[in-house]
Amino acid sequence: MKNIEIYRHKKILVLGLAKSGVAAASLLHELGAFVTVNDKKPFEENPAAQGLLEKGIKVICGSHPPELLDDGFELIVKNPGIPYGNPLVRKAVDHHIPIITEVELAYQVSEADIIGITGTNGKTTTTTLIFEMLEAADKNPLIAGNIGTVASEVAREASSDNTIVMELSSFQLMGVRTFKPRIAIITNIYEAHLDYHGTMDEYSQAKVNITLNQSEGDHLIVNGDQEHLLELVKDSKAQKIFFSTKQPLAEGISIQNRKIVWFDEEIISLDEIILPGKHNLENILSAIAAVKLMGVENEAIVRVLGSFKGVEHRTQLVTEMNGRTFYNDSKATNILATKSALEAFQSPVILLAGGLDRGNDFDELVPYLKGVKALVVFGQSADKLAKAGKEAGIRSIHHVDNVEEAVPVSYSLSEPGDIILLSPACASWDQYKTFEVRGHIFTEAVHKLKESL
């Protein structure tokens, strides 16, 4: 870890705990800052805050009082989940107090190069693929950020022999000032998180912050099939590498004659890749581009793509049962992700969907439901999804209470050769704490059913 001096004796407020807040507070304390932590959860119910107090860090719990800023803080490290509309945050902005997120600290102390990955969809799969390919090539990668361990915890342990592969959300990237990855990837940008960002422009700009400080010696890998994205990154100083699933590229990475081609070098045939889905080809192309820039040989790339079945909860193969194949796509918390999942399969699909009702309809999902054989719906949005299913002409639509109940019902509707796909198109919070919990319950129900047959 770089022993930086810029925070020594500075008054810094860490706003919001969770894992990233605890890591940021501990790191800043170690770097000599005068740290105050403010978390909404009451102190007596807050083991994280209690642990920080034992280290000698000042802790204020129970609410986020705007008057807290009267203490003269020089910097705020904000939990990414706290919106900028929060009264304390608004007051900080009005008083021109700098606000960063924990990934900025990670960059500042890291001795390792960083590969940063962002985008609306595909971040987790791309991040995992890069990590697996670098590991297969003995390049000493570490995985961090929105996936894996908190970025600053990884960065404080990393050496110059490592490479940190870091998944980054728009929430995190809104709070960067000097963050500068050696390689940045923007997988795609679609409309999302407008409840947090307010406008598509703000959301898009947050994503583009990943390349804000890159220079001519850095690389930006970007989706060449999205014209609006190309316009957004036109001022980046980094060397741009484009990927495309729609057209051959003489420079960059694309698909030609059913082979992935890096500039003029054939890497792998599509027939050797076991990860399903057109959307995953975008992830694969961007991942290959990143590791080729890191000097990874084709043999390691081919080995990973010949065995990689997907990230947990993201079009993840669960098992095959009497000719039916079960996939866990619980991470599909929006319509776009479910569209991509449905496009991945040619076989008849029995779709399990539903969850938190965010006020939207599912009209744009209707064309993608045409190949769905049966629809099993649950959660707050069940009626809206059933309505979309009827509009798509699905005759077999069934309401259940939850994901666990959906599994045996979906099996009873299936025949050999069918795909049974959990791809909710909704967040999980109406019934489950996280999409991971929802996915685990689905997976456990599938295995329980298999044991009973």
Task: Explain what you see.
- The protein is an alpha/beta fold and 453 residues long.
- The chain folds into three domains: 11-100, Rossmann fold (3-Layer(aba) Sandwich), CATH 3.40.50.720; 110-305, UDP-N-acetylmuramoyl-L-alanine:D-glutamate ligase, CATH 3.40.1190.10; 316-452, Alpha-Beta Complex (Protein-Tyrosine Phosphatase, Chain A), CATH 3.90.190.20.
- It has 16 helices and 20 strands.
- A nine-stranded mixed sheet has the order 7-8-6-9-10-11-12-13-14, with helices on both faces.
- Helix 1 packs parallel to helix 6, helix 5 packs across helix 12 (298-305) and helix 15 (403-412) crosses helix 16.
- It is globular and about 65 Å long.
Shape: globular
Number of domains: 3
CATH topology of the largest domain: UDP-N-acetylmuramoyl-L-alanine:D-glutamate ligase
Structural class designation: alpha/beta
Mean model confidence by pLDDT? 95
The biggest beta sheet reads:
9 strands, mixed
Parts with pLDDT < 50 across at least 5 consecutive residues: none
Computed Rg: 23 Å
Residue share in helix: 25-40%
The separation of the N and C termini measures 54 Å
In CATH, the homologous superfamily of the largest domain goes by the name Mur-like, catalytic domain
